[in-house]
Amino acid sequence: MHKGRLAILGGGESGIGAAVLGKNKGYEVFVSDFGHVQEKYKNVLIQNEIEWEEGGHSEARLLTAALCVKSPGIPDSAPIVVRMRESEIPVISEIEFGSWFTPAKLIAITGSNGKTTTAMLTHHLLKEGGLDVGLAGNIGDSFALQVVREPREYYVLEVSSFQLDGIQDFHPHISVITNITPDHLDRYENRMEYYTRSKLRIFENQTETDHFIYDLDDPVLAREIRPESMRPQAWPLSLEKPLEKGGMLNKNQIEIRTDTKLLKMNTDSLALEGLHNVKNTMAAATVAQLLGIRKETIRQSVANFQGAPHRLEKVLKIQHVQYINDSKATNVNATYYALESMKNPTVWIVGGVDKGNDYRSLLPLVREKVKAIICLGVDNTPIMEAFGNVVDLMVETYGMTEAVKIAYKIAKRGDTVLLSPACASFDLFENYEDRGDQFKAAVKSL
């Protein structure tokens, strides 16, 4: 490995993890954050005697690095990244860096929606099946930090397109793409094909002994994936088509065929609700089956799984009204799944930073299920324009407490109040977790 100077751009979860791993492996590490480094991360840097700066980049110093690990939040177009590449300094992501220092088998999961739930469920199945397995990437501790502190035989990694943009040799044993729908297009020059290309990099280093699982019902994947020309073995999933191998739905039975094994599960037994979660469960169960987990263990584990926080999370029932926190729905497609799984008249809280959303796909569901819309954002114009003629009642709010109080007044016995913003949270909140936590706190104080 080329030791020497390691520059780390971004002092967040992934940057700090990479810094600790780099220091442990003998690099001379320097962390540089254009903004502010949180107190908890500063403490880790101080404890590990790692040099750092915040509030700007010391360009001359950074350009002496032999290698740069970049936070997924920093775009490739950032001036410092451009200069480092011009100086022929390799700029990689933390999942790439982490993968250099572990012999573990990696299960990498990406997709526009469903990747967190699928990653959590996969980790749950493998752990219940007795494997020594960690969960990292976009969830919890960074991968690099776990490689140093909690070496495992397997890691389930939730990876974003931004993390995949920075890979070179990253080689998962099993890769999964849940779906590809427009998201983060602002980072890809508003070109869907660039975003798609990033996601498809997940299997570029896989070989014949590896596996790739994908959603055949997803139009982009159905068009892009040619199983016969791929190196890894491809396992498609479908709710619509009968398949000779992979995962399919037969009436209310999930059937998963891998080589000589057939696993059957009744959809009624799944802990997670909604058709999209049938697909997420298929993906996780296919991974488990490929890794030799017993069928009975898989069946029991999908039945007792607790879902991801902020993803269709039931908060409370107050006066026969169910409040649901789906703050993690930061794009239209995620909100589509949420609305699709609503069984009762719904008061829908929506809005935030709109990434050029096209709301048209939601119109039929809104007509059918939504009785009132509460806008929650600094600029609610796009939502007002999209749904103004579709629902009878529309209210603009600028804070979570106010939005929840209004929802409480509007909702009648048997209704559901759903926070599913379809937008990023950065206009009024720190992140989607903060938004979801504020929603839960506001509901609990009604």
Automatic annotation (TrEMBL):
The keyword ATP-binding applies. The keyword Cell wall biogenesis/degradation applies. Its main location: cytoplasm. Keywords: ATP-binding, Cell cycle, Cell division, Cell shape, Cell wall biogenesis/degradation, Cytoplasm, Ligase, Nucleotide-binding, Peptidoglycan synthesis. ATP binds at G111, S112, N113, G114, K115, T116, T117. Residues 109-288 form the Mur ligase central domain. Pathway: Cell wall biogenesis; peptidoglycan biosynthesis. It is found in: Cytoplasm. It catalyses: UDP-N-acetyl-alpha-D-muramoyl-L-alanine + D-glutamate + ATP = UDP-N-acetyl-alpha-D-muramoyl-L-alanyl-D-glutamate + ADP + phosphate + H(+). Gene3D superfamilies: Mur ligase, C-terminal domain, Mur-like, catalytic domain, NAD(P)-binding Rossmann-like Domain. It is an enzyme of class 6 (ligase). Pfam families: Mur_ligase_C (PF02875), Mur_ligase_M (PF08245), MurD_N (PF21377). Its EC number is 6.3.2.9. Residues 310-423 form the Mur ligase C-terminal domain. One of its GO terms (molecular function) is UDP-N-acetylmuramoylalanine-D-glutamate ligase activity. NCBIfam families: murD. Cell wall formation. Catalyzes the addition of glutamate to the nucleotide precursor UDP-N-acetylmuramoyl-L-alanine (UMA). PANTHER family: UDP-N-ACETYLMURAMOYLALANINE--D-GLUTAMATE LIGASE. Belongs to the MurCDEF family. This is UDP-N-acetylmuramoylalanine--D-glutamate ligase. It comes from Robiginitalea aurantiaca. The lineage of its organism: Bacteria, Pseudomonadati, Bacteroidota, Flavobacteriia, Flavobacteriales.
